[in-house]
Write a structure and sequence with these properties.
By secondary structure, the protein is of the alpha+beta class. It contains 17 helices and twelve strands. The strands form three sheets. Strands 2-1-5-4-3 form a five-stranded antiparallel sheet. It has a five-stranded mixed sheet with strand order 7-9-10-12-11. Helix 5 packs across helix 7, helix 12 packs across helix 14 and helix 14 packs antiparallel against helix 16. It starts with a helix and ends with a helix.
């Protein structure tokens, strides 16, 4: 009975928050009972319980004749019944809550009338109105205790066989204890209920915020052009965005373990076994990055899908499933293949006329009656044609499908590395002087190396050409060489724009171009590194943006070091 009053009071003070427009109400935001029904129900329930007890006593005692003063008891019963009818008829939710106290006050008077009939134990009924009034507040606690005790003593005084004993203070003490306990319990309950209401409001706000965030994330993932799939810890698919759904519609075998169509690895030729298919690996708990798989779209078309799978963890660090990101890279792969084919075709077409030019220049040089000046000029044209043919051959090799398939034919011999680098610096001197760039070759010292001079000249030309292109007008280029008897080095240092840390990691990739605005093919450094590694050496770069770049080339100093270095390089490339 007291808790029901507390529910009504708490509902008056803290109504449940209503859901935001467009949101479905959840349990946290849904009102428990409408206020128009709650207070009416509480009053009726409290009073009907007391009325049922009183009616039971009256109906059992009156016919049996054991009610000493049936008229006074009947009057009390009538008051209780009237109060019960009022509890049912009066719209208590529409009037001030304090008017509810009238009903238990009437019950106190009615129980007093029934007590004058000298029925044993009837005084215990004062516990009901006392508890009811104590649950309404401190003032009503006092009213309930004082009223019940006063009615009890008045009823005793009116009794014909009244005698003062210590027993008459027991009931008042019990009534006070019941009232104080009910009051304290009500306060504790109301404090807990207030806290729960606040937590309810916060929980409802958190749920609305989480729902909005989930909706926003879903809308964002549905707008991107890559597919997202989330698989829970039980292997069930819990989220699929629109892009992934389109992949599944366009590619019949995508996302199926039991698909009858054959799917292929990144090379487009190697069939994948059923247990090596991406979804099968995900269900096993495997993770991978940028895994390219070719799926058949039709009998004549395939689609290349790049797949990345990552494990997820919840806030406590426990496994929360796997997320798969799929991206269609068919156009990229087709464009890369077309680019390589174009470069290879152009390079191949250039080789034929260059070979013819070199052949006719050789025939001219075979004539002994050429004037010295003409012979010198033809020899320069012959040497540069050979260099150009080597460059074209390198481009043709670098444009093959596999980066590791570059074939570099070498004819190494004992050579002074300083002469090769110095000749490259001398030939590019006029290009540097056009931009007032000074080439400092004072650090070039005699440096023995076991190399193919023509190929290393190609490397030096590439490095010096880049140092000029990416330098500032009026800058400086420093070239130098050294040896320790086992390895020989030469460096090319410029005072140009420099490279960022990210560009330094990719500078040797084929077709990579830094964001500098300087034209080029992006093949020179890739070819240079292949040439150096074919010698058993290596090439490294260090750079500071805004200050300059230094390329260091390491080469074998002797034939023995060349053999050892080539073997180590081949082993490293095969990993």
């Amino acid at each position: 009975m007291a808790h029901a009053d507390q529910d009504a009071a708490s509902a008056d003070r803290a109504p449940a928050p209503s859901p935001a427009p467009g949101e479905r109400p959840n349990r946290a935001s849904r009102p428990r009972v409408p206020l128009t029904e709650l207070r009416d129900r509480v009053v009726a329930n409290n009073q009907i319980l007391l009325t049922a007890i009183v009616a039971g006593i009256f109906l059992s005692g009156f016919p049996g004749g054991w009610l000493a003063q049936a008229s006074s008891f009947a009057a009390g019963v009538v008051l209780v019944v009237v109060a019960a009818l009022a509890s049912l008829a009066v719209p208590w939710s529409r009037i001030h809550p304090s008017w509810v106290a009238i009903v238990p006050v009437v019950d106190i008077v009615a129980i007093g009338l029934m007590r004058t009939s000298d029925v044993p134990g009837i005084a215990l009924l004062w516990a009901f109105p006392t508890m009811w009034l104590s649950s309404l507040g401190r003032i009503w606690l006092i009213v309930g205790c004082v009223g019940s005790i006063s009615a009890y003593w008045i009823a005793l005084a009116l009794a014909p066989s009244f005698e003062f004993t210590w027993g008459i203070i027991v009931l008042p003490a019990v009534v006070i204890a019941i009232g104080v306990s009910t009051y304290n319990g009500t306060r504790r309950f109301q404090a807990q209920r207030t806290l729960l209401d606040k937590q309810n409001v916060r929980l409802a706000a958190a749920l609305r915020h989480a729902s909005r965030q989930e909706q926003l994330l879903t809308e964002v993932l549905d707008t991107v052009d890559f597919g997202v799939l989330r698989i829970g810890t039980d292997g069930e698919i819990t989220f699929v965005n629109d892009a992934l759904g389109k992949f599944q519609q366009r590619i019949p075998s995508f996302g199926r373990i039991d698909a009858t169509q054959t799917i292929y690895a990144a090379d487009g030729e190697t069939p994948l076994a059923p247990d090596e298919r991406p979804l099968a690996r995900i269900l096993r708990g495997d993770t991978f990055s940028d895994l390219v798989v070719w799926f058949p779209v039709s009998e004549s078309r395939r689609a290349a899908i790049s797949l990345t799978a990552r494990r997820m963890k919840d806030a406590d660090g426990r496994p929360a499933g796997i997320v798969l990101v799929a991206r269609d890279v068919s156009e990229e792969r087709t464009a890369l293949k077309a680019r390589d084919s174009l470069v290879a075709s152009v390079s191949h077409e250039l080789r034929t006329p260059l070979t013819s030019i070199i052949g006719y220049l050789e025939l001219v040089l075979d004539h002994d009656d050429l004037p010295p000046e003409i012979a010198r000029q033809v020899d320069v044209a012959y040497r540069n044609s050979e260099r150009l043919l080597g460059i074209v051959s390198g481009i043709l090799a670098a444009s093959t499908a596999s980066r590791m398939s570059v074939e570099v034919t070498l004819s190494p011999q004992e050579t002074d590395l300083a002469d090769v680098v110095g000749a490259a610096a001398s030939d590019l001197g006029p290009v540097a002087r056009d931009r007032a760039i000074r080439i400092d070759a004072s650090d070039l010292v005699p440096t023995p190396a076991f190399i193919d001079a023509a190929r290393i000249r190609q490397v030096a030309d590439n490095l010096l050409s880049n140092a000029i292109k990416f330098n500032r007008d009026g800058g400086t280029i420093t070239v130098g060489s050294s040896t320790d008897g086992r390895h020989s080095w030469f460096l090319v240092r410029d005072t140009g724009i420099g490279l960022s840390a990210e560009d330094q990691e990719r500078v040797f990739e084929r077709f990579f171009r830094a964001e500098s605005g300087v034209p080029g093919t992006g093949l020179g450094l890739a070819i240079s590194r292949e040439i150096v590694r074919a010698h058993g050496g290596d090439i490294t770069v260090t750079s500071t943006p805004g200050l300059g770049t230094t390329f260091m080339v390491r080469l074998p100093a002797t034939a023995e070091m060349a053999s050892d270095g080539a073997l180590r390089s081949a082993a490293g490339d095969g990993k």
